[in-house]
Automatic annotation (TrEMBL):
Keywords: Ligase. It comes from Actinacidiphila yanglinensis. InterPro entries: Adenylation_LigC-like, ATP-dep_DNA_ligase, DNA_ligase_ATP-dep_cent, NA-bd_OB-fold, OBF_LigC-like. CDD domains: Adenylation_DNA_ligase_LigC (cd07905), OBF_DNA_ligase_LigC (cd07970). GO terms for molecular function: ATP binding; DNA ligase (ATP) activity. Residues 8-197 form the ATP-dependent DNA ligase family profile domain. It catalyses: ATP + (deoxyribonucleotide)n-3'-hydroxyl + 5'-phospho-(deoxyribonucleotide)m = (deoxyribonucleotide)n+m + AMP + diphosphate. Signal peptide: none annotated. SUPFAM superfamilies: DNA ligase/mRNA capping enzyme, catalytic domain (SSF56091). It comes from the Bacteria. Belongs to the ATP-dependent DNA ligase family. GO terms for biological process: DNA recombination; DNA repair. The keyword Hydrolase does not apply. This is ATP-dependent DNA ligase.
Amino acid sequence: MVWTLPEPMLAVAVDSPVLPAAHAGEPKWDGYRALLARYADGRVVIRSRRGADMTTAFPEIAAAAMTLPEAVGLDGEVVVWADDRLAFERLQGRLNRSSAGAAKLAAQWPAHFVAFDLLRFGAEGDLTGRHYVERRDALESLFAEQGLGAPWVLCPSTTDPAVAEGWLSWSSVGMEGLVFKRLNQKYAPGRRGWRKYRARASTEAVVGAVSGSIASPATVLLGRLDASGALRYVGRTSVLSRETGRALAAQLTAPSGGHPWTGWTFSAGWGTKEVLRVELVEPVLVGEVAADVSLDTAGRWRHPVRWLRVRADAAPGDVPVFGSGNEPAAG
């Protein structure tokens, strides 16, 4: 029987960053979830979480996989480092490219495969029925015995709550949070058996526009002043509740003159070409939001942020400078 890559095991979101007892903690990476197989006949397959074939998109990883032992299956994350932090946007350019185009991007922004699980290994066969600790031992042995280096990265793992807590400080380089895995847990394809904690921080930004209408805002488009004083777009909120939208609408006004975003277009979502219909507002209102650590290299939030409240005590000049991340405003 020919072994095939299973569906990936998934995680359910949790609110606590504390490592539970009888669990291992791992950093949560900002990249593409990927399963990789190196078959006995020499074929290499890199598959996305949703089953798409990404092999040609990452030729540097596919080529490196040819040197792995036969019949190996890995679960992990494909990441790109740029300017000393994880750069998710450098990954997006890989998909839907020709082989030549992907090779060019691979030379400019080489990807790494962060391995956090070993699903199959040579004569040992399918490992998904074994406990996490057994699979982890086998994964560490694979790295040690093969002397694996770039583009391979062994994901850190710990059972020490203090060590796991310390990894939350890695948000400065784009780590998203933590993943918790029960030590005696088998790999369950397609099931949400792990736990994930996404690091978030409360911070401020200027309300520059809304989707929907000023009278009934659906989401808020946010900005921050750059070093020259220009209002730059930094991200958008998730959909507001009806009650929150009504309360915010009472404090929004149409621009009284020129607006720094006049003539701009905004994407309806990360990675899509669909244009969002927005209404500009007078950019004087400051809002507090809960944002995760997933930033692009320009300092924009990659995921929607959660609207918390209006900061009536703050002015646009009080919010963090564009590109500075999630530091709270002064005062």
